[in-house]
Amino acid sequence: MATLLIELTNRCNLNCRHCFDQRHGGHDDIRLPVIEKIIGRAGEHDFDTIVFTGGEPTLHRQFPQIVRRVYEAGYRFGFVSNGQNFQKIYPQIKFFLDRLETITFSLDGVTPESHDSLRGDGTFTNLLKAISICVAKEIPFTFNSVLTAHNIHEIELLAGLAQQLGSGGVRFGQLMLTPAAMDHGLALTPDMINTVADKIEKLKESHTYPIGMGPGFYTALLFPCASLQMAELTITHSGHLALCCHLPDHGSALLHQDSQLDLNHVEFEEAFATWQGAVQSYRSTKKIYFNNRGKGFAEHLPCWFCQSYSNQVNWLKAYANTHWFRFIEENNFLGRPSND
Ligand code: SF4
Ligand code: SF4
């Protein structure tokens, strides 16, 4: 069975320093007819779980109605949230929680100072209020922690706090490289990424508590994430099927077939078939590239390979004096990888 990730909105009630600016500075909610189209057909294609993302998904103007529709249609569901709106939204969704998989809250620091320095004043306290409701009502939740140059010294403490608060686990995500991440001094260097990954591996070995790593770290796998394994489908707030939720612009540049992936204009089956063809084509390209060139750089940074393939990395030329630029240049990895 597979998971559908639906970006309900690109609006947000926060303005985090590590957010992809272009993704979350928006004003748009996904349209209800698109949601109905997805709910009506996705089950026929083995999708049994729907996870809402954003922006902040609970801000969608019809969030409780959408949860109700998904529930009544028999799907399990979950959502990713910064937790700031949970006290308001909980009374409206509490009737549907027996089909809730989990709520994934964002936790980026172990103190108000470190969390709030990325997410804004008072956000740590508000998050703890949301968690106290979950604990009192036995609502399952987990944490997602985005690692930046400002919080990598807190990895062990973050895992400890997550366990102490009663979360079902913690997943450490890598900050995608963007101009905003570079400008704010938050981007990890390639060396930091490897050190961090070793640290998390050691933590996983020494804990029975579930500790995970998001995609983007070193991997020997050619298709390291659920999206490339075609077990997860992302739909953006504009109603487009996309490669994944990690890329700026969600990898739609990589799939190249905009109107045929747009659920505002085509039926779910047609868009899904186009998506399957486009992802298969990207998988073949990646396989041929590796067969011809051997692995190396891109197995260390699989998300960067996707970004590079979709021509989303040339902005890095503006950062010519950084570790990153030198690393990418040494590995001859600016520009779009080809098969030859
Ligand atoms: S909560 Fe998420 S979507 Fe909102 S600004 Fe922060 S990182 Fe971006
Ligand atoms: S950017 Fe590529 S490797 Fe990273 S999560 Fe998305 S599809 Fe997977």
Task: Please specify the SSE layout and strand pairing.
Layout: E1 2-7, H1 21-24, H2 32-42, E2 47-53, H3 63-72, E3 76-81, H4 86-93, E4 100-106, H5 112-119, H6 123-137, E5 141-147, H7 155-164, E6 170-174, H8 179-183, H9 190-206, E7 211-213, E8 232-235, E9 241-242, H10 252-255, H11 268-293, H12 297-300, H13 302-309, H14 323-330
Parallel strand pairs: 1-2, 1-8, 2-3, 3-4, 4-5, 5-6, 6-7
Antiparallel strand pairs: 8-9
The structure holds iron/sulfur cluster (SF4) (2 copies).
Mean pLDDT: 89
Q: Spell out the CATH superfamily of the largest domain.
A: Aldolase class I
Order of helices and strands: EHHEHEHEHHEHEHHEEEHHHHH
**Count of helix runs:** 14
CATH class of the largest domain: Alpha Beta
How many strands, what sense, and barrel or not for the largest sheet?
9 strands, mixed
Radius of gyration: 20 Å
- Strand order of the main beta sheet, please? 7-6-5-4-3-2-1-8-9
Account of the protein in words:
This protein has 340 residues and is of the alpha/beta class. The chain folds into 2 domains: 2-214, TIM Barrel (Alpha-Beta Barrel); 241-330, no CATH class. The chain is built from 14 helices and 9 strands. It has helices at 21-24, 32-42, 63-72, 86-93, 112-119, 123-137, 155-164, 179-183, 190-206, 252-255, 268-293, 297-300, 302-309, 323-330; strands spanning 2-7, 47-53, 76-81, 100-106, 141-147, 170-174, 211-213, 232-235, 241-242. Strands 7-6-5-4-3-2-1-8-9 form a 9-stranded mixed beta sheet, with helices on one face. The relative contact order is 0.11. The structure holds iron/sulfur cluster (2 copies). One iron/sulfur cluster binds at residues 12, 14-16, 19, 24, 54-56, 82. Residues 215-216, 224-225, 227-228, 243-244, 246-247, 302-303, 306 line the site of one iron/sulfur cluster (SF4).
